[in-house]
UniProtKB/TrEMBL annotation:
<dbReference type="GO" id="GO:0002376">
    <property type="term" value="P:immune system process"/>
</dbReference>
<keyword id="KW-0732">Signal</keyword>
<dbReference type="InterPro" id="IPR013106">
    <property type="entry name" value="Ig_V-set"/>
</dbReference>
<dbReference type="Pfam" id="PF07686">
    <property type="entry name" value="V-set"/>
</dbReference>
<dbReference type="InterPro" id="IPR036179">
    <property type="entry name" value="Ig-like_dom_sf"/>
</dbReference>
<keyword id="KW-0391">Immunity</keyword>
<dbReference type="InterPro" id="IPR050413">
    <property type="entry name" value="TCR_beta_variable"/>
</dbReference>
<dbReference type="GO" id="GO:0007166">
    <property type="term" value="P:cell surface receptor signaling pathway"/>
</dbReference>
<dbReference type="GO" id="GO:0005886">
    <property type="term" value="C:plasma membrane"/>
</dbReference>
<dbReference type="InterPro" id="IPR007110">
    <property type="entry name" value="Ig-like_dom"/>
</dbReference>
<dbReference type="InterPro" id="IPR013783">
    <property type="entry name" value="Ig-like_fold"/>
</dbReference>
<feature type="domain" description="Ig-like">
    <location>
        <begin position="1"/>
        <end position="91"/>
    </location>
</feature>
<protein>
    <recommendedName>
        <fullName>Ig-like domain-containing protein</fullName>
    </recommendedName>
</protein>
Length: 107
């Protein structure tokens, strides 16, 4: 779906899924200048995370598990660099811990 917005318009995108075991919805940006998909952020259950490079420009919210919905908000007026294709993806979260990161190495 193409969305054309004026300089003062608020932008909110919605994503939903129907897979009962999926508990995470991720948002990606693909710009014309750089076709690589850049992770904006994600919602795991109801806990939102925005990547550092997108903080202040985007917010994510929703309930990826129960309501199976997530939202991407542009809290500030979108800038020219925000003109891009936005993707969402749903998944079952794969969480793990790297044991070596749990301990500080003495100097």
């Amino acid at each position: 779906t193409a969305i054309l917005k004026g300089p003062e318009d608020k932008v909110n995108l919605t994503c939903s899924h129907t897979v009962s075991s999926y508990d995470t919805i991720l948002w990606y940006q693909q710009s014309a200048q750089n076709t690589a998909l850049k992770l904006i952020g994600y919602v795991r259950y109801t806990s939102p995370t925005v990547e550092d490079s997108f903080k202040g420009r985007f917010d994510v919210s929703g309930d990826a598990a129960a309501n199976k919905m997530a939202y991407l908000h542009f809290p500030k007026v979108p800038e020219a660099e925000d003109s891009a294709v936005y993707f969402c993806a749903a998944s079952e979260a794969q969480c793990f811990t790297i044991p070596s990161l749990l301990y500080k190495n003495p100097l």
